[in-house]
Predict the structure of Tetratricopeptide repeat protein.
Amino acid sequence: MKARVPIFQALLAAPVLAALLSAPVQAEDLDTLYDRLRAASADDSPAIEAEIEAEWQKSGSAAMDLLLRRGQDALADGQAGAAIDHFSALIDHAPDFAEGYNARAAAFFQQGMFGQAIDDIAHVLMLDPRHYTAITGLALMFEEMDRPADAADAYRAALAINPHLAGAEENIKRLEAETAGREI
C-alpha cells in the first residue's frame, strides 16, 4: 500500500500543476508587463502592448472568454445592443474581470450612452488603474462631450502608463490648441 501513495500523489499533483500553469495572469505578472512597457523603446512597445492586451482578454474561464468574444463579435458587426447583452452576462458571472466592463463601455459609447460607459470605465480602473485603453476610451468620451481639457488630461494619464501610445501626443497637442485662449 505504501508504494501506491507516491504514485497517487503524483497523479493528483499533475492536474494541479497543469491548472496552475494555465491559470490567468496574476497582478504581479501585469505589474511586470506595465513596468516593461513604461521602460520600453518605441520599437519594443508594440510587442509588450500585445502581451498586456492578450492578458486583459483572459478571464480564467473558457465560458467567460466565450461571452467576451461573442460580445466583441457583435460589437464589430455593429450590433451594440447584442454586445451589451453579452458583456452584461459576462459581468454578472465575472464581476472582477476588468475587460468585461471595458468592452461594455465601448458598446455603451457606440450607443451614445456616455453615463453608463463612464460608469463601466470607473469599474475597469478600480480593477486595473493602469488600463491605458480604458483611459483612452474615457478621453474619447470627454472629446465627444466637448470637454477638451478633461480629454487632454486623460490622454496624459494614459501616456504616463504607456509612453508610446499611438496618437495620444498628437491628440493632446490638438486639444491644447483648441482650448488655447478658451475661458474655463
